Amino acid sequence: MVIGGQVLSGAGLTLGYLAIALSQEIVPKVHRPRTQMLTAVFAGLATITGPIIGGAFIKHNVSGVGNGWRVGFYLGAAFYFLAFASILFFYTPGPRPNPEGLPMKKRIFRVDWAGIFMVAAGLTLFLVGLFYGGNPDKWTSARVLGPLIVGAVVLIAFGVYEWKATSTGLLAHVFFKHRNFALGCLMNFVGGIVLFGGQAFLPQEIIHLYTSDAVMTGVYNLSFSIFAVTGGVVLFIWLRFTNNAKWVTVFAMGTIVVGAGLMAVMQPHINYSAWFFPTALLGVSVGVQTAVVPLIISLCTPNEMIGTAIMISNSARSFGGSIGTVIFQQIFTSKIKKILPQKVVPAVMKAGLPPTSVPSLLEAYAAGNSALFAKIPGVTPAVLNALTTSAAQAYANSFRYIWYALLAFACVSLALSLFFHSTTKQMTMEIAAGIEHHPHHLPHLPHLPHHEHGGEHGGEHKVSQEQKEQV
């Protein structure tokens, strides 16, 4: 049941990324920053309210004791149904860009199914090996090395196949006519390590260092979520005056460098304001970066391939996020195994716990079962207080190494962002695929002739004054 649900959720979430392409292709290029801002705002509102609402369901045992978490999924299902109905009944796209004039059946057969299979198989095997490495299996075991090596070989074969065997495959060669596409994908990969990897550990750090209350956990995460929305607004305002997405990307990655550096010095039980500032910086960076890179990629790719280009870039981010999460988890696991006993054992023994009871105390703490503490000889309120304080410090010291590693990747992202070309001349009135209008609506924009999207500015298109007046 759980595996099936995760498979369906993963497939749905991945297809949901197409909403980015849909919102980009129906408006003139010069107005795409506005659609990205609106997308970021609505997504941000969900990330702000979702954790608090879900935490309230859990805390108050909505739908029964221990079943509050289920209600969050029910609520999510309702919103997904609304999204499905909205797209089904109200999204009426015009004719898709099809410069070769191929019928649908031939277009389906021309999909790079071999490339899709290789990249899916390679990524799956590689991530499985990465996940099992170190915990529970040794890195030198066949269970780890087998999937890692085979997955890496398949991914290399995929790259060679896309390079030498086909020019119109999943990684169509036309994508690479403009430098911003390759940079955007690489940026998304490294950025995925930084953004998804770091974001995955924020809730854990809140729980272990500050509060385990389900609602307050969401409150502590508000600074990140609210400023992620703010990042989308910052992007719109910036591009409203400059039309150049390069420097706002540099700003975003510089912000996450500062935020990650500050997160590396967090201590348990600090006041909320000290937690607020670095997480707000992380939120702004996430809000800008997740919106601006798809925008840059959509501007430098052919109109008929915007969806494919954005999906490739998002896949690169997801792949990076998966690798980053595993890397950071491995770092954290290795550190907490060493640091936790070093901090806890002297503290609880100083508080009066007999040495013979230390192993039982550590096992009970690892199990997360507070009822077991009462059965351990020598456990007193003073011992439990020492355990809580020393364990929080151990977790703080262990989380610190995650931010050290993340900081290195953030610096790489900052360096990559400096190589983007300006997008100023790409911000035109060209529309990739308009929406069909009924007669009583505004007249439909005449289809603009497709042309080669190469060159320095990735397919800049001039719209005549007559076409503008018709709009």
UniProtKB/TrEMBL annotation:
Residues 1-425 form the Major facilitator superfamily (MFS) profile domain. The chain crosses the membrane at residues 39-59, 71-91, 111-132, 144-161, 181-202, 214-239, 245-265, 272-297, 401-420. Residues 440-471 are annotated as: Disordered. InterPro entries: MFS_dom, MFS_Str1/Tri12-like, MFS_trans_sf. Residues 449-471 have a biased composition (Basic and acidic residues). One of its GO terms (molecular function) is transmembrane transporter activity. The keyword Transport applies. It is found in: Membrane. SUPFAM superfamilies: MFS general substrate transporter (SSF103473). PROSITE patterns: MFS (PS50850). Coiled coil: none annotated. Keywords: Membrane, Transmembrane, Transmembrane helix, Transport. It is a multi-pass membrane protein. The keyword Metal-binding does not apply. It comes from the Eukaryota. This is MFS general substrate transporter. It comes from Lepidopterella palustris CBS 459.81.
